[in-house]
Amino acid sequence: MSEQSTTATNLVEIVFQEDLTKQGLADLRKKYPKKLTLDMKDDDDFKEGRKIRTERNKLVESIKRRRLDFTAEVKTYADDLSAKVNDIFKPIVVAFEDEDTFRKEEAARKAAEREAFLNKQRQEIADIRYFIEQCKGQPAKFIADTIESVDLIETDIFDKEIIHDAIDTKKEVLETLSGMYQAAKAAEAVEAEREQLRIQQEAIAQQERLQKQAQEIEQRINNLRNDPMNYFGKSSQEVMARIQQLENFTPSEDKFGNRTNEVSQVLAQVIQQLTMMHTQQLQVEQAQQVTSQVESQQVEQLQADVTRAAEQDAATESEEQHQALTDVNRMLDQNEPLLGNNFKSPVFENGEKLGYDPLDLWPSDRDRADNDELDRICNQLMHAESYIELLEQRLNKALAA
What we know:
Helix 4 (140-151) packs antiparallel against helix 5 (163-225). Helix content is 79%, strand content 0%. 7% of the residues are buried. It has helices at residues 3-16, 22-31, 43-135, 140-151, 163-225, 236-247, 253-256, 260-311, 317-331, 346-350, 365-370, 372-400. The termini are far apart. Residues 180-227 form a coiled coil. Keywords: Coiled coil.
């Protein structure tokens, strides 16, 4: 045990010697040895045990009170002594403590500034990773520009404590962006091929639509150009109705595209052809009407002549028959069985000399060769023209007579 500890022990013993000395403690051990036992079931021993406990309590309470009193005195003395010591050391200690506080605060401030600086640089490193998020779903050109921007980032500006994180992050981001660039470039190549294919397909479809539209327009123009063929053998009224219908028709771009001018020319030609057909049909109808009237009048005249011949006073039956035949033969020229030399009709006497204008616009040989029905109609029309010409000659001959 050290000397200081021995001195403290002696002082403590002095404090408590009024209550219990070493000798008193030894006496208590002799008075109450460990081998001493009492039967607490026995009333006398139980009472003795209570007395012993009361003695112990009084002694412990006395020691406690002595300690508290001494402690209070020691504290008061120690506080007074400390105040005197502090007063002696105050000028130097206060100056030291002020400087120590300042240095600690300055160190804490610098540490906080450095931590803020490092946190700022850590955020800048994290921002490098954000380039990956920015490039998601972007085209290859955008990613390539981003790679160039990341590659220009200077890692030397970062603090030595985190510079390795900056270098590793930049490398990792560049590798990731490079992979994204290759993927985007490949996807754009595929999309470009798809777009090219779509454009080609659309161009083909557009060409087919234009071809179909051109074919439809061509078919409409051909139908219009061949429209007069549909009116061969039709009445003049039907032909005129068609002419009026075409005259009220205006070609539109919806039906004929950019060929409306051509259609207008074809329309004018068709109307001209139909007009000529109408004129010719009128002449045919007039000729047919005249022929019908001539035949009707001829029959009536023949019937009247026969009646007059029968009523004549005949000398003999043979003479009457001979005279009747002579009269009939005189009226009916042998070369013109329908028109007698002496036949007179108000239609011929009062009418002007007929003049039929033959059709001068005929379908081409190629069109007739390509269309059997057209060729048949043309042949029939040629026969009709010949018949009209023959009728015209006979009628004019009759008018001249």
